[in-house]
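Internal QA ticket QA-208
Title: Verify multi-chain structure generation after dependency bump
Assignee: T.L.

Test input:
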Amino acid sequence: MCLALPAIIVEIRDADMAVIELGGVRKECSLALIDDAAVGDYVIVHVGYALTKLDPEEAEKTLQLFAELGEAALAAE
Amino acid sequence: MKYVDEFRDGELAKGLAAAVAIATKCAADATRSYSFMEFCGGHTHAISRYGIADLLPANVHMIHGPGCPVCVLPIGRVDMAIALALEHGATLCTYGDTLRIPASHGLSLLKAKSQGGDIRIVYSCADALALAQAHPEKQVVFFAIGFETTTPPTAVVIRQAQILGLKNFSVLCCHVLTPSAIGHILESPEVRDYGTVPLDGFIGPAHVSTVIGSRPYEFFAEEYRKPVVIAGFEPLDVMQAILMLVKQVNEGRAEVENQFSRAVTREGNLKAQNLVAEVFELRREFEWRGLNIVPYSALSIRGHYAQFDAEKRFPLSYRQVADNKACECGAILRGVKRPWECKLFGTVCTPENPMGSCMVSSEGACAAHYTYGRFKQLVQA
Ligand code: SF4
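Actual output:
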């Protein structure tokens, strides 16, 4: 039950609600647990509640690090 | 899907696997091996599903931890939920994952439902609240299970129920705490029976940590000298976390590192933490399936919100129900035994008819091995 994937906010409604999209499927989700969410933000959603926003810069850095670590290792082999 | 596919890239996985292999050869003691526990069922799932164990050198062992809320829910709590529906005429709302957990007297929530219990699957606790609003004539109880990820939503609906003045909504609170379980694995009376815990470090939870932050793990790093690397749930995240753990061990470091920096901060989600603190308080003790009684490891509803506490609204009592004596979950959850070393594995105990916690959901150690690892082992034997 913990395998939530990051979903994008496509619409913000009133009463802390939003519409999110994941792999083409749209769903309602509550924003009651986070602040300053905006359309276009990616959020991690559990049981209908967004728990956190994803930081796109940090995601990019992590991906770059994967590539660097791997390249260095493959070159050394 | 963005933020998913790139973190499952096969080419990058090869590179990371090579990096782990090189790192393990850099140990001061060339014969050493590494045992890491992934606490979360989500990581167990990723490791089994993507065959991460196959990408690791032979001297790196992954041990599946107790971080699956369905697995650690003790039978006695499921019995209480069943009693609510069958004996007290309540409408019980539950996440779908709990339906098949075998309870006492050959029952499960699913069977109780077929016997006429009003048991409904909800996707969110908000659905349970909406049901109570729409049906003032029903007593609606939400069966609240899970770790720090599902607790804040439960806090939100309890607060809403109070604001709405609902008289027919309550919560059977079974929320448990990750740090207490990690502490219990590292230091419990049973550790003496099982021998020393052969753990060199932990992969820390992904989504739980988005809520509680990375700070709570600093205690384990300092006090027990065990490195902790918080990791995302995608396979490349797990590979990188393993690499980071190997490096910490090699360099004699025991620190908290955050691989999942795209979602986790040191402080965590303060808004969620404050809500949880307002609605819940620590329980003195709580039974975990597979770990037994763990002190201060769960939450109950504060007195201020007592009218929404199903344990206060209904005459319910908790009775501990033992698992099959031959079940080795206690040793498996502490990393001392492997699923296939249990006599019941795959014969008496299967996912259809689990005897112990580790077989209950696909995120449990025994179930994961039953589903993904068993045949490979047969072929190799
Ligand atoms: S196989 Fe079943 S009985 Fe054995 S340890 Fe695993 S869950 Fe327990």
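Spot checks passed. Chain B has three domains: 5-65+179-258, 75-176+268-313, 329-380.
Status: verified.
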